[in-house]
Amino acid sequence: MSGVAKPKVQIKGMRDGLLVTLGEGSWPDLVDALTQQIEEQAAFFRGAKVILDVGSHSLKAVDLGSLRNTLSDRGISLWAVLSSSPMTEKTAQILGLATRLSTPRADRTIRSHDSPMVGETASLIQKTLRSGTKVQYSGHVIVVGDVNPGAEIEAGGCVIVWGKIRGAVHAGSGGDEKAVICALDLSPTQLRIAGHLASGLTWGLFRRRGKSQPEMARLLGGKVVAEIWNTKLK
Amino acid sequence: MSGKVITITSGKGGVGKTTVTANLAVSLALSGDRVVCIDGDIGLRNLDVVLGLENRIVYDLVDVVEGRCRLRQAMIRDKRLPELHLIPAAQTRDKTAVSPSDMVHLCDELKSETDWILIDSPAGIERGFRNAIAPADTILVVTNPEVSAVRDADRVIGLVESDEKGPAKLILNRVNPAMTRRGDMLNAEDVLELLAVDLIGLIPEDDHVVASTNRGLPISLDGKCKAGQAFTNIARRIKGDVVPFLNLDEKPGLLGKISRLIRVGGQ
After folding, report:
1. Best of B150, B152, B154, B164 to disrupt the A interface by mutation (most A CBs within 10 Å)?
2. What is the pLDDT of residues B62-78, one digit of tens each?
3. Exposure of A180 by Cβ count < 10 A (0-12 exposed, 13-18 middle, 19+ buried)?
4. Which residues of A touch B99 (CB under 8 A)?
């Protein structure tokens, strides 16, 4: 292989921190190359916030976790991981790392709701989101599991939770006012749709428990309203 | 012998990690096992005080890691319980004086001569926490039936899962049955439903615990009160026994009965 032309590690300064792009090669080689580069320019890297673009590498929590430790040993904080591999994205989300860079709010989507919604992408998460986990996705988000207090979801589209929502959920974060939030038990700490904050609702972990019912929240006249999901009425 | 490493952690401070560590260590040592406790809270050490060993510290964890003494020299042996040892934290340094791999090496060295290595993790989820969980075989998460403590426990359980350290086990500390009965405190079911992990200990709130902590005499040395029994039960569960949980809901006295009648009548 002629790996001479393309360096294994590319570093670029960005608004959100240093973007480190890893090229082709085995994961241990890339980590070595990155560590070496950091040691050579220790002063440059110290205190830096790093966004790591790992391309298509599929990484497990041990891989990312140990790299994060290596970086933090050198005073560098890893805060985001970009990848085209769904497994890596999931791993990063579990570790509480961002997987998307902040995009300007002006992102009024071209998506049209009049046409049939065929082939819209959603991110499927098959686990309970514990406190401190943040899921950011430009499309819809589906969770099979609970969203615990202290966990956050920020979706460009709808959020469907097959479980309890007790954390913070923002649907339609890019301004999509048609986005909805559904859950088997809707008791969030905070609910937002297209930037509108739900208010006047008494929810939370410590409320008196009644029988929970599936609910759907949507935007109605600029206010977030939640209704019990009853198929008979539809 | 090949010792097992148990790390006691919580996320939130003040929920009773150090008390739990000290009492589990005493309970395990009372059953005849060899126990070494390591205080992972470098810079804010407490475990020595709770165990009543603070006036015997010569060397500490950082001295071992930096090679100023041998491991044996830093192990303080408890005079009441010859099977119990403490490796204290340094008070004058900070968490960065030790790395996760240092902790792994240290525990590997200890494993051959002990049954149990208990690590008292500092609060937080930063370096000190990472150091404490790195060598762990089992992780016990301590929480109180309070919304904020439960939320931090949830975060820590998530971090432990993502480090592939197996499912953590839960100790619910400072349960106040009277408050739970009145609905002013979360009950064990609420907490377990949210955290979705196995419960290994349920410890009632007990004034004796604070008193014994201040005296440096862990409460499980005297097994009479309920909290002391609860700690002994956790130690037995760790060793593989099946022990039922204590019934904390003791019968209300005459006064309790009357006040309950009044409340029922008023509703």
Report:
1. B154
2. 999 999 999 999 999 99
3. middle
4. 73
Q: Point out the residue among A72, A166, A206 whose CB comes nearest to the CB of B186.
A: A206
Q: Which of A61, A73, A150 sits opposite B164 (nearest CB)?
A: A61
**Strand B138-143, strand B84-87: pairing:** unpaired
> Of B119, B138, B112, which is closest to residue B34 (Cα–Cα)?
B112
Beta B4-9 vs B138-143: how paired, if at all?
parallel
Name the residue of chain B whose CA is nearest to A131's CA: B155
DSSP state of B264: H
DSSP sequence for B144-155: -SSHHHHHHHHH
What single DSSP character describes residue B251?
A: P
pLDDT digits (tens, 9 = 90+) for A95-125: 878 887 765 444 444 444 555 546 678 899 9
Dump strand ranges (E) for A23-100.
Answer: 49-53, 77-82
Token pair of B74 as six digits: 């830093």
Partner A contacted by B187 (CB < 8 A)? no
The CA distance from A225 to the nearest CA of chain B, in Å, is 25
pLDDT tens for residues B146-201?
999 999 999 999 999 988 888 999 999 999 999 988 888 899 999 999 999 999 99
First-residue to last-residue Cα distance in chain A: 62
Evaluate if residue B123 carries a pLDDT over 60. yes
Q: Is B109 left (phi over 0), alpha (psi -120 to 50) or beta?
A: alpha
Give the three-state DSSP class for A50.
strand
Which of these, A188, A192, A233, A185, lies nearest to A211 by C-alpha position?
Answer: A185
CA-to-CA distance for B248 and A96, rounded, in angstroms?
37
What is the rounded CA–CA span in Å between residue A28 and residue A25?
9
Is ipTM > 0.90 here? no
The CA–CA distances, whole Å, from B142 to B27, B95, B121, B203, B226 equal 17, 21, 11, 10, 18
